[in-house]
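hey can u check if this looks right to u? its 667 residues, i copy pasted from the old doc so theres a chance i mangled smth
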Amino acid sequence: MNAVASPLLHAGSAAICVAWVLLILTAGRGRSSWMLALACIVTSAWALAVALNPEEPLSGAAGVLDILRSATWCAVLLWLSRRMGGAWSNALTWRFAIGAGLLTAVALVALLPGPAILPTLGSPGLLARLGLALLVLLAAENLYRNADDAARWHVILPCIALGSLAAFDVLLHSDAALSRAYSTVLLDARAAIAALAMPLLAIAAMRDRRWRRDPPVSRQAVFHGATLIFAGTFLLGVGAAGEALRHLGADWGRAAQASLLAGAVMVLAVAASSRSMRSRLHRRVVDQFFTARFDYRREWLRCVATLSAHGADAYQRAITAVADPVDSPAGLLLLREPGEDALRWAGSWNLPVTSICLPGDHALTVALRGGEWIATEVPADLGTQLWMAVPLRHHRDGLLGVVLLAPPRAAFTLDSEVFDLLRSIGSEVAMFLAERRAAERLHDQLTIQDYARRFAFVAHDVKTVASQLTMLHANAEHHMDDPEFQADLLMTVGAAAARINTLVARLRQPDAEEEIPRVAPLERLRALVPGIGHPVEVQQQGAEHCILSIAPARFDAAIRHLLDNAVEASPRGVPVRVSLRREHACLTLDISDRGPGMSAEFVRDTLFRPLISGRIGGNGIGAWQARDLLRGAGGEITVISAPGAGTTMRITLPCQPLLERTREAVA
């Protein structure tokens, strides 16, 4: 193989390749950068070998490196194909690898000492080199063709660079096979083409910075590992300084060594407890190991945990959720009330209480109204301690509020990734505050609804007391001189006054009338019947030993409503019948009258609906309240009625034998 290459051209190519190797190792990250750097290193070594021995560019050390250069290019392309995945299969990769290995072995064996073989088509070494170059060219073409749109941007430059070099080698060896000699022009051109192709590999390595994956380790592990490394290095330095001091003098050397060690421990303790120091370590060390600036899973879980925590004020939790991602130590919250444009102070975290109120035409309010822009310059009229304004945008209510944050503990670079995270967290905090506001309104409505319900119950009972007093007043005109009537008058008026006071107390404080939930139904009925003012017949079967788990006041109110309705429906002088019987673990109480009865439609649609009554002057509260009170104790009301056949209100309540309740009370 009589050919001579230009030593100056190959030396310059080697120097250029070495420069690109240094740039790749400095700017690139990840294993792809190392593989591309390996291709450049082998290429520079080949160019240097040719420059040192230009008389034999295809034999000796230069020939070996020439073959290894093509094999390395093929290995780099196959590694990129395996990393990218896609349409490449393991079988195809192994076939390329086996073929490249065989051709490399044949080409290297052909370089062994022996009779000179001219570069004809029958030369094994020439065919092996030509086949290896074709294999590299096919690998580059298949890698580019099988890459998807996202990965093609990363592999196109290596494919062009290595594929072009392989294509030129195919031209070189083909020309040698046909002309029976290598062209010196083509040999020198290889060095120039290699120098031109290496920048493409460097650019590909820098592109790989955006393709690299995060290391399979958590940020906490990196943080604690870095902390241990820095602490260990610091202690080693302190130990070395102490050892040097120990050799300076026998009198004070050991004391200085002990003092220095104690001071170092205190410095480490202060640094470990300092949030600012931890923040600087995160920014300068930990974040450099990861593609993304944030661990989004951890940030999301921290936001959820902060907003759902118990004990702390809700507004402080909202500020903390926004402040934690940017490491801000303080902030305040401004909220907009429904129907207003101004933003008013709602809460502070590590900042004093203030009376800030931003009108609707304030520059900051106007800027944040869209909810997408994050202000990094807070107006001076809001205070010099504030650094950033994060809008709280709700999908329904628009700009719900804004969180003003203090400067971070350590220098914090703001970019689009930070703004996107703050916007997402701001939307989550806005939903949290909107749901909290809706829950407060619902609680207020339920409180008013409960008060209205109790007021309706009290109004119905007052109506009953008023009816009794009206009847008493009517009879007083005829029986006022009767001493027995006078005694009954005093007793009835006293009972009415006591009843009204009880009703007023219940309206003012609903839990005031709650008593021990223990009722003997037969005893309570016998106490209620004398005040009805109408004949009532009470019958019982085994109910004298039955105890109900219901407050006495609730039981009396429910039974009184049903008895009043039965009395109003009964003809004058016709008694109302009340029967009690125990059936298994339940007490059945029937209140029956001989009134006109009710239709099934009336029972279904009207009887238990509040504020709807079938009687003139009625308010439709009694039956509804009675069922509500009994259902609260686990009971139920069943209506048995038909037009012209009277009505039976059947009450079913769970009960326990008197002896069992007595044992429980003693225990």
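The CA atoms of residues 330 and 644 lie 77 Å apart.
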